[in-house]
Amino acid sequence: MSTATIIGSGPNGLSAATALASAGISTTVVERNRQIGGACSTAETTLPGYLHDLGSSVYPMGIASPFFRSLPIEIPWIEPAAPCAHPLDDGTAVLLEHSVDDTIAHLDAIDGSGYRSLIEPLAGHFAELVPDLLAPIQHIPQHPFLLAHFGLSALQSGASLARSRFSGIRARALFAGMATHSALSLGAPTSAAVGLVLMAAGHACGWPIVRGGAQMLTDSLARHFESLGGRIETCHEVMQLPATDLILADVTPRQLLRIAGAELPPGYRRQLERFRYGAGAFKIDYALNSPIPWTANECSRAATVHLGGTLEEIITSERHFTADIPFVLLVQPSLFDPTRAPAGHHTAWAYCHVPNGSAADRLESIERQIERFAPGFRDCILARAISPPAALERWNPNLIGGDLSAGVMNVRQLLFRPTASLYRTPVDGLFLCGASTPPGGGVHGMAGFHAAQAALRYLAH
Question: How many helices and strands, by DSSP H and E, does the chain display?
């Protein structure tokens, strides 16, 4: 029987392991930390009884993932009343609702038809579009015309798409907040793509959280993998390539260079060394004695809240990630999942983008931005756990400089991620399977699945 070792137990590592074990490969996952899951895990970082997601927390692409959907497992998804809220200074909020019509009701009347024509075709055919979106760009699309319709808008910058499609403050602000998930400047080409996907996903399948925290998603994947005969070893840091038929590394190029640099050809090493990492994150976990006191009460209908004001403000905050008024992404899961905190209490987390590896303290600016839309927020805080980029990388070495996407998602690195050979390396049997390979960041397991398919094809030949 062929053997495989998976380095790293994040969603992509576990997905790769599951695909190989399902094919009859004797597969072991090794994890450097005591806790499995990588950036898809949960812990009590502030006070006992308050569960905080350490990395990912909201899963629009998780619930849409073709691989996750193919598994005979139950993931305890919880769908908030609305996928996302974006408060404004007039005391109201724009909401991404589950229905296109309900979302349009939050917009200025002039933008209703523009929103419908942009998003409704994508949302209405999202199930057909997802397999193409979550595959390497170098593939034969299953739905070429649908993908082309998406691509015409997705290749634009978030700023130009917002300005060309919408005239009102509310629609422009809503789209700008979505586009910030690209972790690119909103003036950068392709920064519109993530915004389009997230809006369409919100209408098609929602932005769920997981009951009990991100760890429950990881544990569901791990239990299924072990039921197939797979093994997981924790507290096992890989310092050199193991002696197995296949090695699939759920790591970024920088870690692969540390583990296998001496065995990689010089030309491939240089390609990995040129791989660029994106903006970092400055993250704060909160234990709260009450729900966040939003001025716009409708913000309490969403687990995810975007805090940035207008399109112009968000463009400024995301241009170099150093603005005094940052765009803040906040998640308040305990409003919908009471297992996250003691009765009557709550958890939340917030982060802003910063330059990769920045040592700047953004605590005050983040909390000032939250207070802008929720006066009295600081009075709710029982405890904080602060994670600047260096702390994120110490906990999870895949988060280079605090980069949550395992590499900047610019045009070149969308096409060749991390190199033109994608998952495969020049070393026989060695493959990359993490978020530094297609389709990139997000919790969906598809990078691991595609890498496993490439590894199985290698074995077959």
Answer: 18, 16
